[in-house]
Amino acid sequence: DIQMTQSPSSVSASVGDRVTITCRASQGLSSGLAWYQQKPGKAPKLLIYSASSLQSGVPSRFSGSGSGTDFTLTISSLQPEDFATYYCQQANSFPRTFGQGTKLEIK
Amino acid sequence: EVQLVESGGGLVKPGGSLRLSCAASGFTFSSYIMNWVRQAPGKGLEWVSSISSGSNYIYYADSVKGRFTISRNNAQNSLYLQMSSLRAEDTAVYYCARDKPQPIYASDIWGQGTMVTVSS
Q: Is pLDDT of B46 > 90?
């Protein structure tokens, strides 16, 4: 099984800051790395798919990059609505696995 | 409107069974891979199971293999998760989720979730 390790597990930042979250896979991924945002009591929301493709309707301040085993999600200028928990997921093979999550908190 | 609505959650005793349903609308259900993902209280997301559009391919997490069965009825635009031999650790919100059209593998539409509580 492919293990996904996210870092950091939590981060404090201010509105306007640039934030980067990292996800490392235990094996190289040929495809299928996605990033999700989840707010308390709500379902996850797809932000990025195929490592770097922006989901329709998602603001352009979100971007994804990486290949192989190392991937990043970057929020270029934090907005108040971006404070949430973020998860990476590999869908390269089954079982699909999520990272443990990164909680983005207001400083 | 593209929508997924789960139902069937509730309180069940350890060892018991429960069947979750997910009603799809607003898209051609029969064309999409569908998934179940769960989230225990205060914990992260856990992928549970996936089923291909024609039910030819089915996959399970090791934690539920042999106890849970995923199925779908394309004529009724419905996805199901039959859960048996339930354990306390199965307590979670269960989400159904649709994959984007192949060959992209990411879930772009999610239901609101249904809570399953396993407790005596």
A: yes
